Amino acid sequence: MEMDRKFARQYALNVARLKPGKHEEAFEVGDDFFAHFENSLIEEGSVLITLKMEKYGTHLDVCFLLKGEVTLSCDRCGNPYPHTLQSEERIIYAFDPDLNFEGYEVMYVDPDAPELQLAQEFYDFINLAVPMRKVPDYEVHTCPPEVLELLGLDAEGQELEDESPADDDEPIDPRWAALKKLKDQSDSEE
Ligand SMILES: [Zn+2]
Questions:
Q1: Are 12 and 45 in contact (CB under 8 A)?
Q2: Domain spans in the chain, listed from the N-terminal domain onward
Q3: Would the pLDDT of 62 be above 60?
């Protein structure tokens, strides 16, 4: 429990201390950050999260700018590869539950609570910035040749065009095909 609080404080923003106006603050998350989340898809990475904020009497408008690199595992071979990540998110932290910010993501916070815990937001935003389909460009990562072969892909991850053009392929000798049919029949009779 003590560890949890310590962890949360690392990624907390002291809102009460912020004066009205513009502010900027940056947080950096690394491997230890991801280790804190159970069953995290990401185990390694380094992401810089810059908060561009504007505080008003009624709310705090926060833009989260994420930039960094995380290690993902390739959908094809399961090996790790580096994924460059860059995204932008925005949340309005409103101090008054009666305020309406239509069209924005809003979270209502107690204006007297000194700290805003942001670890969960950071984690969610990083995961949102990760592609569903984890098939990296061949410049970034190359799957082992045996995996590519199994999937019928060339070294650049492109599908091998073994069906077309058909003329280049060895045509199946009709006599051979007939023979094979005969053999299959006799096999099934046994
Ligand atoms: Zn791969």
A1: no
A2: 2-128, 147-189
A3: yes
Ion ligand 1 neighbours, Cβ < 5 Å: 74, 76-77, 143
Q: What share of the chain is helix, strand, coil (3-state, %, to 5)?
A: 25, 30, 40
Span 59-83, average pLDDT: 96
Cα distance between residue 48 and residue 38, in whole Å:
21
**Mean pLDDT confidence for 34-44:** 93
CA of 140 to the centre of ligand 1 (A): 10
Q: pLDDT tens for residues 9-34? A: 899 999 988 999 999 999 999 999 99
Ligand 1 center to 54 CA (angstroms):
43
How remote is the CA of residue 102 from the centroid of ligand 1, in Å? 43
Distance 125 CA to ligand 1 centre (A): 25
- How far is ligand 1, taken at its centre, from the CA of residue 92, in Å? 39
Q: How far is CA 173 from CA 161, 169, 170, in A?
A: 22, 12, 9
Q: How many angstroms is it from 138 CA to the middle of ligand 1?
A: 9
pLDDT at 168: 47
